[in-house]
Q: What sequence folds into this?
């Protein structure tokens, strides 16, 4: 996870510099908290994670940082069962999610099946995708 976190930090830092925005400790604390959450997550889960880590950040700072992270492409916003969820867009990682009435959970899929899915899509659509993100809805 440390390597992923380093990559996310560098991408975030670079994007903040490009936008002439300050690199505040609050923004990086929010990114660190997100990287430790199971994705997808809701705002309240993120807020609770920050509180538990003894990092108090205002609701508006969290919302604004989530919006910024979404614009940069570090996280993605979803509307699932009329609730807003966010998920980390981890570079070079396939993501699979099970969405049911009981909640939203990451799903482990065997590497062989992942390769089969990617191969099928590449052949069918004459493309060359390298990673996939799939949500399964019950």
A:
């Amino acid at each position: 996870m440390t390597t992923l976190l380093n990559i996310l930090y560098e991408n975030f830092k670079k994007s903040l510099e490009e936008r002439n925005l300050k690199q505040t400790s609050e923004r990086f604390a929010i990114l660190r908290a997100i990287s430790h959450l199971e994705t997808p997550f809701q705002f309240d889960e993120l807020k609770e994670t920050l509180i538990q880590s003894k990092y108090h950040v205002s609701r508006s700072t969290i919302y604004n940082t989530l919006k910024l992270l979404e614009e940069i492409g570090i996280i993605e916003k979803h509307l699932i069962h009329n609730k807003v969820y966010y998920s980390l867009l981890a570079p070079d990682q396939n993501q699979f999610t099970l969405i049911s009435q009981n909640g939203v959970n990451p799903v482990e899929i065997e590497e062989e099946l992942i390769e089969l899915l990617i191969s099928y899509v590449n052949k069918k659509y004459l493309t060359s995708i390298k990673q996939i993100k799939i949500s399964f809805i019950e």
Observations:
- The two ends are 29 Å apart (CA to CA).
